[in-house]
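@here heads up, posting the sequence + SMILES for the zinc ion run so it's all in one place. Ping me if the SMILES looks off, I pulled it from an old spreadsheet.
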Amino acid sequence: MSWLTRVRNSISFLPKRQTTDTLWHKCKKCDAMVFTKEWEDNLQVCPRCDHHDRIRARTRFAQLFDEGEYTLLASPDVREDPLKFRDTKKYTDRIKAARTATEEKDAFLNARGKIEGREAIVGVQDFAFMGGSMGVAVGSALVAGIKAAIAAKLPYIIFTAAGGARMQEGILSLMQMPRATVAIEMLRDAGLPYIVVLTDPTTGGVTASYAMLGDVQLAEPGALIGFAGQRVIEQTIREKLPDGFQRAEYLLEHGMIDMVTHRRELRATLGSLIDYLAPASQAAA
Ligand SMILES: [Zn+2]
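bot reply: prediction finished. Complex structure tokens:
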């Protein structure tokens, strides 16, 4: 035991949770050590370099909604492991492990609440659950969220984060792409806005469907957004890609998205967008 550990352990007034591991947060981008409390109060954005860390669905809801208050919507039950898929591990075992690690049932949650006084239904894709991958459970939860928005005549806002389709569900995962597209059309027919916030990373089949269909496309700073990976593209076209390729700022410059919004500004921006796009939806709420 080093002298430092001995000294630390002898400090009895530190609560148990606050070990050096939880007291400090190391920034993944600039390596700065920041007090976890300071980092959390800064919406999990590095106060030194402004790196926007990936955040879990419930944390997102707590940050986004007024006073951190929201109602979680139930996600539909789906048939699990329809293909009885197995690679190096059984798919059912992978799901079990992801559930234990994340304490969530799958990679998508919906909640209803107020953003600066405006009501909305918000869906969040959780990258921590099998890379946020889009399977039948994610597709079904997304459709359920949109249906809830139509029933309540409220805007639907989605935060995307995914490595792509869930390959263990094969064609059924790819079917979620047109399925989500049809649901978004239903929302549009009801005259309600669909607002997308792209977060780090949004790639693959998710980018090829519901992540790019927003009436307004927002992204968090520095978010990786693309279809195929940079290495695959470089090997295919045999060219070096420019710096910052597939980052939110690059996409904004090239007209793929409408805004890059700091996490601190998200509530105000979403609030104004709801005012512009769906003032009537707030009349009944
Ligand atoms: Zn940093």
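MO: The chain has eleven helices and nine strands.
MO: One more: The pocket of zinc ion is lined by residues 27, 29-30, 32, 46, 48-49, 51 (CB under 6 Å).
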